[in-house]
Every structure is written in structure tokens, then in C-alpha cells.
Design a protein that fits this description.
Two copies of one chain form a homodimer. The first copy, chain A, is α/β, with parallel strands linked by helices. Chain A has 23 helices and 30 strands.
Chain lengths: 706, 706
């Protein structure tokens, strides 16, 4: 249900606003919205609603919602929580399409509040009113100057207007962030505290904002979202539009997650799934106010680097060293400039300075602004370079302003991003920074932070290229949807049943048969080639090894028969009531062990996990995730992402393994999980053996859901 | 050569200063020091020296150094590089004890400059003058108001005085950092740009500053130091004094290191050795200006937490969640408060708020400053809590000031650290912040940064405890110095010779013998128990496996004889001239493979490396370093530090291995490396097998130096 681009237009820019629970007492929440609306410059009518008062301030007060004049597009509700549902119903009857509920006392306070919230949700649905909150502190529209909220964050009519929108699951925190970002010079246009999201969610608002032309950067403070699919859709749309969603995700550690739950009672998936969504879509994770400011500024340049190659131009060796270190951490590359560029550069660069990248023009460049900019111009023109950071000292006063104007002119002649690492107090360079800001040339306070912002541009550009390439490739379905027969109800498949599902999707499995115990006892010759694995085949025994129901490396018929009878006896002893399909005989396979898993997350749907076996996965957590389905190209990215990838692609002279076959298998698992997401809760292939010739699943588990 | 505490007194606070190369032209470097000295408030005499001018500004100018009146404690030198050595010699003859050389054109510009610098170094030594620079921008003493330098960084007479000293290997960068930190309210007392450090080094200055009472925090910007031992000594002294050395280390990536070399031509060890020094001593690594400001403020509180337990008290759920996440990353723990504390707290806390830690008093606490502070008081008194962060909104104006005064009073009654996470623009809370600053209660701009600073206090306190415990334990030498006989000159020992060195230090090795090839051929029975390893024993063949000179798992005498002759033949074919001591027969040993190495770093001396074998060390870089020698307690810390430590201490029900024996072996290797640092360049035990009973070295290499 993506809203139309103007779906929330009258919420943020209402013709008139009713304040329900209005009070003359500014210490009460109901006493604050009216002065704030007036102070912020709201030009529509404001209608206080409260049966207790004939007037509130200078305004006539209405006894109830029905008495409010029409048209009224928005109700601000500041009454005791138990009264809220009925008031929403009244708004519905009065034809008020939007409400913002400040009242607290819903699910964030426990079971009683949760029951009240459930009732509120029903009333909202029946009323047709779209509701922000409850338990929120309000919204700001700086374009049309409409502040609808309470608290100190709204007593700031001089906030700077700019092309950044913010939606936050924490109200107090959001307005603290806005105040700090404003002090660093970043301007916002829309700010929303989403509260409990009983009706309108953070993601619905985000989907609205990202379509607005005036929103160039979207910032989300998120503790958890209930719809992973919508989060992913937002990420895709962001990449299509080339807009970044700066995402400040909190509640990621166990203790932070517990705190988040007590805070807004968010139901949340594991952080690793959020990260998978962030990596795939147009998101940029931020962790503090300065990240938000720097990276917003970088994107407001409205250009992205074509590749990882960056040039650093400085007059201070120390900042060159620091930025080079950070560029390395960011995966940026500092190539040499072309010979032609260097030849031209030598004509203007101070002698004895280093023109290797970083280009350190040293303090000798002081006062030679034209020469400095000539070096910048040559660097921007160099085909080896995708983006540029300059760090320069002569930025004060009129001289700095002239320098900045010339620099902005040079930047305007290219489509490559360029940022200034300021490295001084902004007050000393006001004129120059104004020129750069008008020209949308980003500046960042410190060299390190500049390199971080350059990294963010690069990573975003890479994601956009990957996204476009994946879109061009299409779905990459390696096999048509296969009909599979599953038993009804929740439960497990036996190993053999699970492997038949894999085989149906073209995932190689070991050659195997299931025989009844007496069939094994009667065998004259082995049905498969030795050595064999002998296991119980039962949907009820998940941990076969612990049950003593696995024997490996069986080399002859006699050993096979004795292994089979032991396996059956052990299984029956371990779990007397277990259903047993028979004895599974499988040819032994070899190679490097990897694990391929899929879980059907309640928030994100099916997601595939990949890692090397044993300690790599369980101790070192060297695993990676992708949402299903995906194609083999994406699977190759997964394989390349794990730290121990060299063990598959060739390490210390060992032969490379069949990585293409592995990627194909990963993609097929993703389609199996996606095609049958209605029934498959979990897939676990552990181990999948990878060798030089291909891959083979040696064990498999599939868990079904209702 | 640690200087006496007042060794540099007259450098920073001279009675009179000669400015050599003084000029009336402010665009020249020589034209800047005199106006800067006057502007900064220097009260001593200033003597321009330049044969070209009779006066410079209002001051009489002297034709040469010899003509300068006595006493003159400091010369500032701003002349062409080739003239510098002779001028230093003149200073020496004139009895001027200190000089600061601004001139560039030494080793930073290549071979010719390096030769000039070598000559300068000789002249300095002969002259007795102590010299800062060359290629530096100067020093500042804000206590006595003496600015000796040039450039925009010195045109700031209003820098705030505070208890922080800074020594930097990058001049321009240092003064940029100071300006930015000053804007965030941090004050400095001494600032030095160390330049090429031809005479006085960063570490000599650091050793001086850390002893000064007025220096409570020392900041170093370092690209590389030439004396690792002195760096380590500084770290120990810092822990003894309880002062932090905030270390901003740049040039750590390959590209950054290359940039650092072109910048100041620093010779540097690998970053991992710096990190080992930082981890051991009173260093705190910082990466940007805000780290520096926040962590300095945290330490100026002059109290350290007794343990990892922290309480967060907020009125905003969002900031609670963010801080909880960061505390988790920092290794801080959020315990529940005691039952008694909670009982008292419930009397004042708003209903429905969460008193689990983080304590979220919600927006309902607004205006109830006394109740908020009562919660703080109870938390500080709780025995489960070692330090506290508060995040509170009501900090404006007189109300905020009163709140801050009460808070400071509560903090003054305990010895636990408490920090305020401000979360708003400081201008809005000027009065409250002044109260806190006067009381040395730290405040930090954002919640995340506050949690980072709390983590820094905790890590420092832990290091101090470890240091004190190690000092109390003494050296922990597990074995007296053993005399070892080494062949003269650089080269390798054979495996057997290397293992005899290990055995001399009590490190268990496999039972083994070396026999001549014909002795093996004549054997009637094996001299050791099968299975055996058979290898060539030669100081010349480093890579035995590649030479085909190793056979493992030999099970009987016939196989032994054939293996021995193959190994010898292969070795001779692989490297015809190699010296061969014989055939090494060794009993096969088993267990988990680890690697123990030692290198004798030219900057840091002997250092021991530990990691698990194979991919863990070579691909995942899961290794740790300690300087030799150390005791088994420190070795246990090393073992616990690697990510895959659980493979040794017990993983998924596997039996724990003999970690004590491993720790003992590590300590013994460290003593071997330290006792024989004059000859041993490198030790490599790969693998050392660890099993449930103990450890055994299965292969060993020792490389000698001249």
C-alpha cells in the first residue's frame, strides 16, 4: 500500500488544525501545540477543542470535535490515553482525515496499555482517519512552516530549511539530532516522530518522502520495523531515484535490543537481516550526528563516483597520511595520476613536493591559490581519478571566497565528486563555505570524516551499479518452480526427503537409497559404491550424530549390515517413539565443507545464509546473508564476502574449487526457499562439500511450518 | 636519557629569544615570529638577527649571533636550509642552549637534503644546543604565553589554556587539531611541532611533559617513532602516574605508510607493534578531533571506574538504546541495580518508566530535576555500579544551572566517574556546563560519543590494574638465562639445533635424534617409537617440505630407511651445496596446531607472536603480539585474545587443552628471545602442538643476526 505521492499532503500542510485537549496551561502537553503553531508561522486556522474552556488564549474553544468548523484537515490529540479511541472515532465522523496522537500510555506501558492500543487500532481502521502515534511528539514541516508537536524541540522557529527529511522511532532523540545537525549547518524539510506506529508506520512515511522532489536525502532512526519487505522496497526505490536513505539503526546488541523493546516495544528481526537489507538497497548506515551531517552534505553534491579511484590534494602532510589510511579502510584506491597530468602539474607545483597520490603540495603552496586550483583542475581531468578530496588552508575572508569561487567553477565543469576537508573552525571561512554550499560542493569538518564521506559515496555508487546490473539480468531463475509434496502441519522432513527437495531444484546430492532394516539385512551386494555413510532416516530425529544414528566410511557389506542394525537400535533407544522411514545408505563425498542455510524470517521472509563449516561459522561468525531469491551472480558476491573466501578460490597454491557450481547451488537453494516460502520454515545443508569438480550435499534438514 | 623534569624549562619559557633570519616582510617565514611573539604576550627580550637590516620593526637588529646580548635562551631559525648547520654552531658558541629550526629542505626532500641533515645532526651534537626541528612550525606555551612559530595556527592569541599538552609530527595538522578542539572547549598548555626530530624527538618531549603537574593529558600525533623502547617506557610511566597518552597514530595502511614516508620520512615499524605498545601502556588511541576532546574531558574528571559495570540514566529511550549498543561494543556491562536501590528509586521515579538498566525515566521526568538527581544519587551509591552516564534534557538557564550544581555535589561525594551526554547544542546550556566544567564533571556532545569515552576510561583502568598486577608479580622469569652456543654470523640454525635452544629453555620438543645417512642405513632397530617423522637436518634448507625433504607417519624400519634415503637425495637435488647435519628422526606428535613466533624488531626489540596454525594465522590474521619477555599470566591474556581461543579452551563440548602448558611455553619463548636478543633475529615454532596433556614443538626455525 504505497501511498500516492500526495497521500500525506494535508497531514503535513493542513488548511486548519483542531487541537483536542487544548489547555491554557503551557506546562501541560495540551497547552503547547497552539503557541508552537503560532510561533512557527502556521497560516491556517487553529481550533482548540476542550469542553472546559470557552476560549484558549485568543482563540474560541470548541466543546467537541463535531463543533469544529470545516474544512479541518488535522487533529492534534493531547488527552488521557483511554479517551483517545473515542476521539479518533469522532474525528472520523467529523471528516478530519489525519490525526497526530501525543498521548502516552499504550503498549509501551505493559499489558493494559497494549489492550487499549489494540482497541485503538480497530477504531482507527473503522474511522478512516490516518493516525501518527500515539506516544509521539509530533511532526514538523519546514517548507510550509507547520510545527505540530510539543516539547523543547519545537521551540526553535529558526531551524534551517534544507533538502533532508527525517523519520524517527524516538521522538526526543530525533529533535536532539535535528538541533545538533542544524548547528552544523544541515537543513531539514520534514521531521516526524512516528511513536508507536499503530497506524502510519515509519516505512510508509519514508516511502512517501522519498518520492518528493524536495527530499534529496532521507534519514531514518530505526529500532525495528515490522515489515522487512517494505524496508527492502524502500531500498530499491532509493537506488532507482539515486537518493540515499541514511539509516541510524539502534538496538543491535543484546542489551540494546532489550532496551529498545522496553522503549517502543518494537518487534525486531536480528541485526544481520537489517544489514543484509541495508547492503542491498540505497541505505547508508550512520552512527552519530556528524556522520549524518557529513554524508548528507556529500550526497547533496548530486554526483556519484564512477569507481573506487580517489585523489587527495593537500597542503599538509599529516592530513594526507590520515586520509590515505581512512581511504584504505573504506576500500578506496589511490592510483597514480597519468603521465600527461603529472607533466602539466609539475609546471605549477612547488619544487620538492610529492605528486604521488596523495598529492602533498606542502606549506609552500600557501598564498598560491591559482596554482593550487590548477592542480585540482588537472586532477579532476585525469582519467585515472573518479573523485577528489582537497584539503587547503587559505580559505579565510575575501581571498578564500575567491578561491572557493574558482574551485566551484572547476567542479562545475566535471561530473566527478569533489569534497573539501576543512580542518579548521567553520567561522573562519564563512564566505568561502557559503560559495561552496551554493554550488553544492560539499565540505566536511575534519580530514578523517571527509574520507569516510567519500567512502559512503563510493559504496552507494557500487550498490547502484550492482542493482542496475541485477535489474538488467532479470530474475536469473535457474529452474522453473517445482511442485513439491510436503506432509501437512509443522515438523521436519527426514534427511532423504529433504535431499529429494534439493535434488528437485537441481542441487547435487550424494547417491543414496533408503532401505527397510530387513532389506539391508537381506542384501547380497551393496546397492552403491563403498565407502558408504549409514544413517537413520527419520523426520523425528534431528540430531542423528548425538543419537548414535550415523556411521561413516563403511567399507564392506558385513560392516554395512552391522552398522545398519546398530544405527536402528541406537535410534530406537534414543527416541523410542520416533517414526523411522528406514536406513539411509549414501556414498561418501569429500571436499571443503560449507554450510548453506535458509530461514523464513517472520519480518523479512526467506533469507539464505552461507559460510564455511565448523569453527568458521560457529566460532568466527564468518557468514553472509542474502534475501531469496537471487541469481548466481549475487551468489558469487556472497562467496567473495566471507573472510575465508580464499579457502574456496585458492589459498597458498591449493587448487581452486568449483565456485561456479557452489554459486549455482546457492541460487537454487534461494529459489527453493522462495518458491515454497509458504511451507518451508528452514533449510540447513550442513555440510555441502565443495571440491574441484562440483558440489554435493552430504546432509540436509528441512523444517516445515503450518 | 630521560630529561630532568625541568630539562626543557628554558626552551618553553626563555628569558630572551633571538630570531635568526628575522625579516620585516610578514609574507616571509622570518617575518612572522616577532609579531607573533608580541601578539601572544611574550614578556622577555626579542633579538632580531639579520645582517641586512639595522632594525626590524621597532627592534634593533643584530648582524650575527655572536652580537646577541646575554642571556638568550632560545634561537628561532628561519634561513635557507644550507645555512642552518653553521648557525647552530654559532648558537653553541654564543651559549644559546635551545633552537627551533623552521627551515625546510632536509631529508624530506630527498638524498641531497638527507646529507645536509646528517651534517646538521653532527653539528648539533658538537654544539651542545638542543634543537627542535628542522622542518617544523614551532612551539606554543600557553601557560607563560610564549608562541614561537609561524603560520596561521599561531595567529590565535585567544586559545584556551587547559591541562592538555600536544606533541605532533605534523605541524600544520597539529594546529588545525588545536583550533578545532579549542572550538569544542578543550584547552591546551603546551603544543609542539616536532618536525624532522633530528635532535629532540617526540618521545623525549613526551617524557618531559608527562612529568609536569600541569599536564594531565598528553596527546601525540605520530606517524612513526624510531625508538620503540622509549615509547613503551612512556606507556609504563603514564600508567604509574595515572595520566593518559592520547595517541593519534597515522600511516597504518600500506598507502598511508607510503604517504607518511614521503611526508616526514619516518622510519616505522608495522602498526601491529605500535598497537602492542598501545595496549600494554597508558595509551588511548584516538582517530579524530572529537575523540580527542571527549576522551580528554573524561580523563580530566581524574577518577577511573573500578570495573566494567555502568549505569545509564536517561529521559529519552532512543539515546538509552544507542548508548546500550555502544557500551556493549566497548565491553562495558549494564547490570541490574540492587533490590535496595530499586526500592528507593521507585519512590521518586515516574510510574511506568523502566528502572532496568538503562534507566529510562521518560519525558515524564521533565521539570522534576530533584527526582532525576535522586535517581542519580541512588545509582552512584549502588555497589553493582562502577560508573554512570546521565542524559538529561532540562539543562537550560538558571534551572539547568541549579540542576548541574546539585549533580556536581552528588558526584563530589563519590569516587565513581559520571558523565553527562549532552545531546543538545552547548550554547543552550552554557551556565550548567560551566558548573560541570568547574567541578570537572565531564560532558560529551552526543550519547554515542559519551559511551565511547566511558569505554576509554574502562579500558585504561583495566590496563592500569593489569600493569600493577604485573609489577607486583615481578618479572616472572620461568628459567635462568641459559648459555647457548651459536655459530658466528647471520644465518639459520638447523631444525635440530633450533629445537635444542627451545629445549634449553624448557619448551617441550618431540623426542628426536639426528643420524648420518649411513647410520640410518645400518640401523637394526628404530631408536625411537614409531610412527616417526623423517626430515633433512640442515641450516641451509629453510623450506624442507618444498624440497621434498620431509616424510611423516613412517611406521616401520624398512619404510624409515627408504624415507631417509629419499629425503637426503631430494635435499641434495633441491639444493646441491647445502650443508647437511644428517637425518632428523622425530616421534610424531598430535594436537591442535598453533604458531609461536618471535621477531627482533629493529625499532621495538624482541616481540612474540601467537596464533592458531594455517588459515587462522595466514588468512584470518587472528594473531596477537607481546613484547618479550613476559610471564605466563601475560601469555594467558594473549591466548584469550585471539578470536578462535575457544578452540583451545573448549569448543562445542571438546575437551579443553593444556592452556597452562601453552602459556608457560609462550613465556619461555619470550625469555629465550629476550635473553639472546643480541643474536636471535627470529624464532618460528610452526607448528607447536597443543593437546590435553601439554604442548610439543614439532618444527622450529631460528634465524641469527650478526
Amino acid at each position: 500500500m504505497a501511498p500516492a505521492p500526495d497521500g500525506f499532503a494535508r497531514l503535513f500542510n493542513p488548511r486548519a488544525i483542531a487541537v483536542i485537549g487544548a489547555s491554557p496551561d503551557a506546562a501541560r502537553i495540551g497547552g503547547q501545540p497552539i503557541p508552537i503553531l503560532i510561533e512557527s508561522g502556521f497560516r491556517g486556522n487553529v481550533y482548540p477543542v476542550n469542553p472546559k474552556y470557552p476560549r484558549v488564549g485568543e482563540l474560541a474553544c470548541y466543546p467537541d470535535v463535531a463543533a469544529v468548523p470545516k474544512p479541518c484537515d488535522l487533529a492534534l490529540i493531547a488527552v488521557a490515553a483511554p479517551l483517545v479511541p473515542d476521539l479518533i472515532a469522532q474525528c472520523g465522523r467529523a471528516g478530519i482525515p489525519f490525526a497526530i496522537v501525543f498521548s502516552a500510555g499504550f503498549r509501551e506501558v505493559g499489558a493494559e496499555g497494549a489492550a487499549l492500543e489494540a482497541r485503538l487500532k480497530e477504531v482507527i481502521a473503522a474511522s478512516g482517519v490516518r493516525v501518527i502515534g500515539p506516544n509521539c511528539i509530533g511532526t514538523m514541516n519546514l517548507v510550509d512552516r507547520v510545527y505540530c508537536g510539543f516539547g523543547v524541540g519545537f521551540r526553535n522557529p529558526h531551524l534551517k530549511l534544507g533538502p533532508v527529511a527525517l523519520v524517527s522511532q524516538s521522538g526526543g532523540f530525533a529533535y536532539s539530532v535535528v538541533a545538533l545537525a542544524d548547528a552544523e549547518g544541515l537543513g531539514f524539510n520534514y521531521i516526524v516522530s512516528a511513536g508507536n506506529e499503530t497506524d502510519v508506520t515509519t516505512l510508509e512515511l519514508a516511502a512517501d518522502f522519498i518520492e518528493r522532489n524536495e527530499v534529496e536525502v532521507l534519514v531514518l532512526y530505526v529500532e525495528g520495523v515490522s515489515d522487512g519487505g517494505r524496508l527492502r522496497a524502500l531500498g530499491r526505490r532509493a537506488l532507482e531515484l539515486g537518493k540515499p536513505v541514511l539509516t541510524w539503526k539502534a538496538g543491535n546488541s543484546a542489551i540494546g535490543r532489550a532496551a529498545a523493546e522496553s522503549h517502543t516495544a518494537s518487534m525486531t528481526a536480528g541485526y544481520e537481516l537489517y544489514r543484509a537489507a541495508f547492503r542491498e538497497g540505497g541505505f547508508v548506515e550512520v552512527n552519530d550526528v556528524h556522520d549524518l551531517v557529513d554524508i548528507s552534505r556529500a550526497f547533496l553534491h548530486r554526483r556519484l563516483p564512477r569507481g573506487p579511484n580517489i585523489a587527495l590534494i593537500t597542503s599538509s602532510g599529516g592530513s594526507a597520511v590520515l586520509m590515505a589510511d581512512e581511504c584504505d579502510r573504506q576500500g578506496l584506491v589511490l592510483p597514480r595520476l597519468s603521465a600527461a597530468t603529472l607533466e602539466e602539474m609539475r609546471k605549477v607545483a612547488p619544487k620538492n613536493c610529492s605528486l604521488a597520490n596523495p598529492i602533498d603540495l606542502t606549506a609552500q603552496i600557501s598564498g598560491r591559490n591559482e596554482d593550487f586550483n590548477r592542480v585540482v583542475e588537472l586532477t579532476l581531468a585525469d582519467p585515472n581519478i573518479d573523485q577528489v578530496i582537497v584539503r587547503y588552508g587559505n580559505v579565510q575572508g575575501a581571498v578564500g571566497e575567491a578561491w572557493a569561487r574558482q574551485l566551484a567553477g572547476l567542479v562545475g565543469k566535471t561530473d566527478k565528486p569533489l569534497m573539501l576537508a576543512l580542518g579548521r573552525v567553520p567561522d573562519e571561512a564563512v564566505a568561502a563555505l557559503k560559495v561552496l554550499e551554493d554550488a553544492r560542493v560539499p565540505w566536511v569538518l575534519t580530514p578523517l570524516r571527509t574520507a569516510v564521506a567519500a567512502g559512503a559515496l563510493h559504496h552507494y555508487a557500487e550498490k547502484q551499479r550492482r542493482f542496475r546490473s541485477a535489474s538488467a539480468r532479470g530474475g536469473g531463475r535457474p529452474i522453473a518452480r517445482q511442485a513439491l509434496e510436503f506432509p501437512s502441519g509443522a515438523g521436519r522432513l527426514s534427511e532423504h526427503e529433504a535431499k529429494r527437495c534439493l535434488a528437485a531444484y537441481g542441487i547435487p546430492i550424494a547417491r543414496e537409497v533408503v532401505l527397510a532394516p530387513d532389506e539391508v539385512a537381506a542384501l547380497r551386494k551393496a546397492p552403491l559404491e563403498f565407502p558408504l555413510a549409514v544413517k537413520i532416516d527419520s523426520p523425528d530425529i534431528a540430531h542423528k550424530t548425538e543419537a548414535g544414528a550415523v556411521q561413516l566410511g563403511i567399507k564392506d557389506l558385513a560392516a554395512l549390515k552391522s552398522a545398519a542394525s546398530e544405527v536402528v537400535a541406537n535410534a530406537r533407544r534414543h527416541q523410542p517413539g520416533a517414526r523411522v522411514n528406514g536406513v539411509l545408505l549414501a556414498e561418501m563425498v569429500h571436499g571443503t565443507e560449507v554450510i548453506v542455510g535458509a530461514v523464513n524470517d517472520r519480518f523479512f521472509g526467506p533469507v539464505v545464509m552461507f559460510g564455511l563449516g565448523g569453527v568458521f561459522t560457529e566460532l568466527l561468525m564468518d557468514v553472509t546473508y542474502r534475501f531469496a531469491p537471487f541469481d548466481a551472480v549475487t551468489a558469487r558476491e556472497m562467496i567473495a564476502e566471507i573472510k575465508a573466501a580464499a579457502l574456496l578460490t585458492g589459498f597458498r597454491g591449493s587448487a581452486p574449487l568449483a565456485v561456479d557450481a557452489l554459486a549455482d547451488a546457492l541460487a537454487r537453494v534461494s529459489w527453493l526457499a522462495a518458491d515454497h516460502a509458504e511451507r518451508i520454515a528452514e533449510i540447513d545443508i550442513n555440510p555441502l562439500f565443495v571440491n574441484a569438480a562440483g558440489v554435493v550435499a552430504a546432509d540436509a534438514l528441512i523444517v516445515l511450518k503450518n
